[in-house]
Amino acid sequence: MAFLDKLLGKKKKTSLKAKCPITKEPIEEGFGFMLTTAQIVASKKFWDMVMTEPETMSYTVSHFKNQSSGTQMRNMIFEKHSGVEKPWMISDSCINLFDVDKQSARENAKKWWANEGNFNPANSGPAAAALDAQTFKSLKDYAVLEAGRTRVVLQ
User: What is the pLDDT tens value at each position of the chain, 155 positions in all?
Assistant: First the structure.
């Protein structure tokens, strides 16, 4: 049958998959929370976590030792995260990093699943486009200049 399907041009329906960009854990169909990039970058808990991960801790230490290279790298990390176009499918294990309406985020995820990944909630796109300039600058200042300060021990 597979041979005939291939011959006749029939394609098997591929199953939609989702993976949390934070934890990298797979998200089962019908589950997860969908957040916009603006909602992601608005979380101080998120930035404290990102800036103190093993891969980024050296930049954070350098930043708090007033080394411009560390600050530049933290700025690049912020730009990378804040510029994400697509909404984020977040797992149950890290939704508490974000101060959002969980019910609404769960409903958006369900809409995403129901539409086979073709659903974007309101205010999707890069954070700078969804937030006013002052709010964006304030969030960027926290992420680049302050995030992780309480977790860094300077010698």
Answer: 555 555 556 554 558 899 999 999 999 999 999 999 999 999 999 999 999 999 999 999 999 999 999 999 999 999 999 999 999 999 999 999 999 999 999 999 999 999 999 999 999 999 999 999 999 999 999 999 999 999 887 77
CA 18 to chain centre: 13
Q: Which two tokens stand for residue 102?
A: 């969980």
Tell me the C-alpha distance between 95 and 154, whole Å.
Answer: 31
Beta strands in 1-154 (DSSP E): 18-19, 26-27, 33-35, 88-90
Cα Rg, the chain, nearest whole Å: 19
